[in-house]
Amino acid sequence: MNELITSFIQYIRYERNYSDHTIGAYTNDLRQFDLYIEKEAGLSELKDVDSDVVRNWIVSLLNQKISPVSVNRKLSSLKSFFKFLLKLGIIDSTPMRLISGPKTKKPLPYFIKDAEMEALLDGDGFDADFEGIRDRLIIEMFYDTGIRCSELAGIKKTDVDYESSLLKVTGKRNKQRLIPFASGLKDLILAYNEVRVKIPETESEWLLVRKNGNQLSSGIVYQIVTKRLSNIPLLAKRSPHVLRHSFATSMLNNGAELNAVKELLGHSSLASTSVYTHTTFEELKKVYHAHPRAKKKEVIMDIRIQSIHFDAFTQLEAFTQKKVSKLEQYYDGILQAEVFFKVVKPETFQNKEASIKLKIKSGELFAEKISDTFEESVDCCVEALSKQLLKFKEKSRAK
Questions:
Q1: CATH number of the domain bearing residue 330
Q2: Which is the catalytic residue, given 13, 55, 157, 241?
Q3: Structural domain containing residue 339
Q4: What is the residue-wise DSSP string for 69-108?
Q5: Which of 11, 36, 110, 276 is catalytic?
Q6: Is 14 one of the annotated active-site residues of the chain?
Q7: Residue 244 annotated to the active site
């Protein structure tokens, strides 16, 4: 039977494109059944395996306190295996046709309320360092897109289309689909990339990595989610799948059609193709905006730029707008930013002065720097202000 199991595993790996996780589970289940029919049932030929042998195996598993859910999973492995043997003509009939697994209680799916997710994602629970921004991005991606844990871990940097706001994910059996995402998630990915590029060790083809550049495994992603969701009180279960259910629940509660949500989750026959049809995908993008994070009106700080004794050129203004707006990732209570440019001591090299004054909910912050270029001065000001905002945030938490 070992050779047949090996042939079956190769079949589901190379022809059916099953995931490594599924292949490992099927292999263990079939090896376990092989051991049972040899040691307990005293059989050496597959043709001698009948429904009674399988039923006795089910009883032995339940006697070992194996849960009905796990038993049904093992029976699913066995059904696929015998179906494969029937297709090859190795057996004339399958003993699984009269088999039904033990009944299981179907628990109601856990999900997180929109208000609880808003409080978690927009609160002060994530630091502004590499791991803090990365972990927040992980939670946001799960909640905003509904993707699976393995799909998130497998995202490469090239899978993110920033211009079209589309994310390509590879699901079960290596089937790919495109998922739209909102501007808030885009900004968070860009913020993560900006922090990551400052750590050379994180260079990798993968989007989400550890500090040493290694790809995040599904197990580590699971641990991160469990840890971060512990900040939501009274939540009975904490896992990436809870966030997937929360995404679907939010979509449905905000008017999305069930079939459209299934397509976004990768459950429908349409989503099993590599590319959606144009018409359908345009409809899916419209449906996605039913998600509360996509509908949320982001409060954008008012950025005012003034130059003294010279005209600030368009490119410098655009650069400044982009850089200063990044400060919102450190504190979401910035009301206004005033930027002043001034040329001091024209005869010196370092004569480009930039100063930034931030008006926040409970006061003002200020930074002033002089460098060879205005861009460099703005960078230095933004870096100084980010540190001030973090200190302000820590003091606010301590109160």
A1: 3.30.160.100
A2: 241
A3: 302-398
A4: HHHHHHHHHHHHHHHHHHHHTS-SS-GGGG--PPP---PP
A5: 276
A6: no
A7: yes
